[in-house]
């Protein structure tokens, strides 16, 4: 075995030195090195003390350096040391060999046993964890199947109940339509002796009723005509007595012959007075035999026609008034008649009724139902009545309910046209409603049914069958808190109605279901709900022994694996013993051949390698940090050499480094990048951190387009970055409108505070210059944006947070304090902490610093003293605030030159209007290029050839602007050829004369504004900017229209044009909107119109006390535009008198739309809105007129 193949844990036995003097020296040092368990080197010395005893001495590898200094020649005297102290020395050597062998064997055995124990523990742990994992995996799978089965059963139940309810309502609605159609036909036919309700006998009632009962799973269908008190009641009782035998005989005949009826087969009872009660009855105590007094108030809803029928030998049901004050059905019938809805009455047979009259009523109804229901239906089960309104004119509309609601909302009479003439009532057993909703084998789900009036009862499903559990909520309590195993829904939500379809698209029980358009099921009177719960019966079907079986199987497999591992371990141990024996022999050979110093070089210790690795990691951390910073570091170092020196100026000399030094550092950093395990971080003790925030940016950006926001930030930050490179400042990051920079890293510099102060001054001044220039393109208030700057000096931790997006970050209290300096500062000023102030003072710049009065309250810091910094201030000079001063506003009559800010607003407005005028001219030239349109245009312009003739008066004689308000402003129709052959607006060059007149007009408008809050020229510019922004959000059809028109699909292009109501297809309309925004508050006095009326303003009489300020603004601005000095501007805006009229209408409507307090204008807008979006209101009107009406609404809402 070669020396490189020897195990690292083998001990080395060193030979003694031949030199006696060296031997004595070695008695205080280590001559014998060995590898310990951890891989570190220990040495063994045999020391002969004064008494002649041989002692074993252990020392660390650090003490064995002396052995290497003795060279390699000491091995030649190996044998001489054996005679040291005679026989005692030999005995000592034997002790040493025995100790080394024993230690070697013990260490190897210990390591093997430790590894074996770890593996056994690991196998046991993995077995236990995996067994638990398998158990819970299988168990959770069963639980998931249980939940899935519950969800499936719940869906099936709700869908089936919804279908049954919807089919019931639809069947009754169809039945009502057929009855009413037959009745209307009988009334219209003079050959048929047909009476009006309530004296109407439904023909073929039993046959039709059977169909309704089949679809609804009902047990009894009843017609209850609405009978008013007095004469109508007397007439109906007489009529009922005379006409009852016909329908009773028909019903009995069908009932006895049809297999659908499985109840009692009956004949006409002998105790009937002709088979039916001739009087409207009301309940006496425990029966229904009381005759309703003749003077009892109406209306009455007597039970009359019904199917099936049955004898009631102990009392009459027919003729019973369900609307009497003691009846259980009075309230649901009242809700039905008042709100035109179907209602569910109270559930009977719950045993919860305490009123003796209602108890008697329910007992009589139960006795009646007992005679007619099938043998497999328990008449003592809970039952409920569904009351459906019977109305006249039911066939006049497809969706009568929607029409009734519309009439009510419109304040129209409903009762006279849709009169409720009775009720169609179906008796339903809840059990029948729930039956056959689930397939066999799906057992255990519990259904708790109740209403908001306090009735609650419980059923349980057993496949297609259901079992009534009793009154009250009887579900198992453990499922009440589990949201996955209980679900509640109102019954009226299970019906797919037109007005609920959009809101209920996500409800699975309404998907793929026909829309029901009849009377809605009431959601106000005691609405019923159903709450579905899981149960132990359901869960038991899914709780099996599978988890235990799979767990035991897993444990068995791992036990088998452990046995295999044990066998492998036994084989491996035998092999290891053989290898160790060979290694021991090889060790003895190597020990006899090589001295210790050679062995150390052949087999370097782990401790030495670890120490070297740590030293390398510590040495290269900073260089890795610099390497990550890359070009920024290079720029920073370059700035330190160039910009840093210039920044100091006459103040201080900046430090510089040579290019060779930079290249050496970069090479070292590149080499260090290979070691990426250690964190890239470093502490920099001397730095200055700066935060700069744009004050007012949030409000400014909220009214700008994204492109404008990024134009501002890119311009500012780009300029700041150039200054940073020049000054040698390192930019850390930008967060929104906040700029963060630091000096003093990655290369330390003593003047970091001084450089940062100059940098802060430079970016503040640059900010002020750039915002003034950008105001001409980015709009008003841009020049009001200023920086708020804070600085702090101290140590920071800098490093790279590695991950998906690695970032250079600063941490520490210095950073937090710098942020507080910025947040508590003042716009356009530089605030610094005490630490920065001291550095500037030490640099001889104390005259730059001014103490801030009172200090500031900083979050997490309390009250701290801060300082204002103004680099470049002269010593002994004033350190007053650098805030810009504002002069007092001029008087209203002062028409001198505009101030600088107003001039910038004028230039911005001129630029906006120039673009729109270019679009007007481009559209006009495009139209002139089309031969046919050009010919028509020439014909229309023949009377106006030559110089355009305008009426230059402020308004038509005898009228005020309010009289000119148009309900519909006509916009030109869309012609796809204009888009296909459009002239580029940017290619249009406006004459110098037009531009001068445009600028002069806007300037005069600015002067005409008074200096009132929210009614000044600056506010008007804001409104103009908002209008421009909103116009840009409207989709222009031109690009799509060109493509579609080229393909020949002109209809699609027109449709897209109509989608925008034609606004963006007409540049003159857009210009009118912007023009109106500019002039809408001209000469506004800053008080509302009502105040002008109170003060008897002269304008009140001129404008008839209506929209005074707005009409005055229109007149003054229009008069100004009509002056001769703006003739070229007028002609380029409006080429024809028609254009002028169109432009005038737009301006008047837009400006007067700003008066939101005038009731007449408000009513006009409301009527316009109603007519625009109501099909009924615009019958017979062309689509183009309605499109223009909608465009007028949008235009007025823009401003």
Structure write-up:
The chain has 1199 residues and is of the alpha+beta class. Helix content is 48%, strand content 13%. A hairpin with a 5-residue loop joins strand 1 and strand 2. Helix 20 (752-778) crosses helix 23 (900-929).
Brief rundown of the structure:
With 1199 residues, this protein is α+β, with helices and mostly antiparallel strands. The protein contains 37 helices and 25 strands. 35% of the residues are buried.
Helix-strand blueprint:
Blueprint (H helix, E strand, L loop, with lengths): L19 H7 L6 E3 L5 E8 L5 E7 L4 H4 L18 H102 L16 H12 L3 E6 L5 H27 L23 E4 L2 E5 L14 E2 L22 H10 L3 E2 L11 H15 L12 E9 L8 H10 L10 E10 H5 L8 E9 L4 E7 L2 E7 L14 E5 L7 H4 L26 E6 L2 H5 L5 H48 L2 H7 L3 H24 L1 H11 L1 H6 L10 H14 L8 E15 L1 H5 L4 H22 L2 E6 L2 E6 L8 H27 L7 E16 L5 E5 L1 H11 L6 E3 L1 H9 L6 E3 L4 E3 L3 E3 L2 E3 L30 H30 L1 H11 L34 H5 L11 H17 L8 H17 L4 H9 L3 H10 L7 H13 L9 H6 L3 H5 L5 H14 L5 H7 L3 H16 L6 H14 L10 H16 L1
Parallel strand pairs: 19-21
Antiparallel strand pairs: 1-2, 2-3, 4-7, 4-10, 5-6, 8-9, 9-10, 11-12, 11-15, 12-13, 14-15, 16-18, 16-19, 17-18, 19-20, 21-25, 22-25, 23-24
Helix pairs in contact: 3-4, 3-12, 14-17, 15-19, 19-20, 20-23, 23-26, 23-27, 23-30, 27-30, 28-29, 30-35, 33-35, 35-37, 36-37
The coarse overall form would be flat
**Main sheet specs:** 8 strands, mixed
**Number of E-state strands:** 25
Oligomer: single chain
Strand content: 5-15%
Tell me the radius of gyration: 50 Å
Helix proportion range: 40-55%
Q: How far apart lie the N and C ends?
A: 96 Å
Q: Mean pLDDT across all residues, rounded?
A: 74
Low-confidence runs (pLDDT<50, min 5 residues)?
Answer: 1-97, 262-275, 500-506, 592-607, 631-658, 877-896, 933-950, 1044-1048
Alpha-beta classification? alpha+beta
